[in-house]
Amino acid sequence: MAGKKQPTQFGFTLQSSDAGARTGILHTPHGIINTPVFMPVGTQATVKSLTPDHLKELNVQIILSNTYHLYLRPGADVVQELGGLHSFMNWERPILTDSGGFQVFSLGELRKVTDDGVVFRSHIDGSQHTFTPESAVAIQEQLGADIIMAFDECAEPHDKEYSAAAMERTHRWALRCQQAKTREDQALFGIVQGGIFDDLRQQSAEYISSLDFPGHAIGGLSVGESKADMLHSIEVVNRILPEDKPRYLMGVGTPFDLIEGIRRGVDMFDCVLPTRLARHHAALTLKGRVNLSKAENARDPNPIDPKCSCSTCRSFSRAYLRHLIIAREMLASTLISIHNIHTLVSLTALLRQSIVEGNFESTAESILEGMK
Predict the structure, then answer these.
(1) For the residues of 213-280, what is the DSSP string, one character each?
(2) Which of 29, 46, 312, 314 lies at 20 to 30 Å from 322 by C-alpha?
């Protein structure tokens, strides 16, 4: 089944591979992206506590924003009127927008699903709204991201009956999203669903691949299933998804997840983890998480990680960071977020280089051993 032609200024070129891991270049209207890539989440047109300049200094290549949240506030029409997301948030590098499917389906009793779409109530003021595949695409076209996502239904991963129904609906909606798309300067990615069930995941990967999207996402993982089930599902799907198109694992981004996802052929990752942990005073390192609010840090002159080259670790001690936390200073979240995003971006860059040099497995095993 042939889909619409791919957008102008978009393409994916595989460069090198080492076992299942691979590197590539993703071309977008706002610049190239070297994959594998970690994408910080800027849900409401901001990566929490950080400025665009911070993100550029961290070598962030692409960020993710969310259709559901921006539709409710400030409104897609406002963003469009002010020049689209890139202009609105002063970020000239690539942007990906999630369709809002996951956010809508996480509303529980505040939403009702039909074959046409989803009727839901805003988490902000309780007002009623409707998302359909057509409206989800239209909103994302107003927002103007480089990569936009098909509207899908994210099911509870262990319920096979629900997973099958949600998968079928996701397939129908994917086709409707393709038919609704009008902008040639945006790439629409399809999404594979199917819970943790091999037959459903295979069926979904085959169908979504047949629609000839310029890229594919693996949805419905990291939502309560075990790590083993998540990794197995990635393997099942990536055996089927075409090798010449980017593969995006949605909502996943611990250091362990990045290593194991890349090992299984994933090209793109996003996660709120680095900034969320920072707001809860936790720092990411490749040796584990560090709770900076603990009293043991009160007089510690050392940085979060002596081997880290981020501006936080170059300039500030654990003692200072704990002081900011105890004093409830906003700067604490900023400095810890800088470190956490640097940890994931630099890890991904290291793994990219290891693939090029043909030593991915030894590099990955060395990092994983250190995590133990």
Answers:
(1) -SSEEE-S-SSSS-HHHHHHHHHHHHTTS-TTS-EEETT--SHHHHHHHHHTT--EEEESHHHHHHHT
(2) 46
